């Protein structure tokens, strides 16, 4: 089981997201980081279907962002 994301990791992601939205940035990297964080949250919460669904949706968006479809 992966380690649950720390507050610092989530805070860093949100700061980078804000920066990318205001000055531009690599959204594909942010989409991948979001998916990874959500997967770690879901892993830490076995049986939480909503968390698992959110992680699965985020990972699918990573593929679409990269053009994998």
Kindly summarize this structure in a few lines.
The protein has 69 residues and is mainly alpha-helical. The chain has helices at residues 7-23, 27-44, 49-66. The N and C termini lie far apart (27 Å).
Summarize the helices and strands and which ones pair or pack.
Layout: H1 7-23, H2 27-44, H3 49-66
Helix pairs in contact: 1-2, 2-3
Give an overview in words.
The longest helix has 18 residues, at 27-44. The protein starts with 6 loop residues before the first helix and ends with a helix. The protein is 77% helix and 0% strand. It has 69 residues and is mainly alpha-helical. Helix 1 packs antiparallel against helix 2 (27-44) and helix 2 runs antiparallel to helix 3. The chain is flat.
Distance between the termini: 27 Å
Please give the number of β-strands.
Answer: 0
Let me know the largest β-sheet.
none
Structural class: mainly alpha
The SSE order reads HHH
Q: What overall geometry do the principal axes of the alpha carbons give?
A: flat
The averaged pLDDT comes out at 91
User: What value does the Rg take, in angstroms?
Assistant: 13 Å
Share in β-strands: under 5%
Percent helix = over 70%
Uncertain regions spanning at least 5 consecutive residues: none
Contiguous helical run count: 3
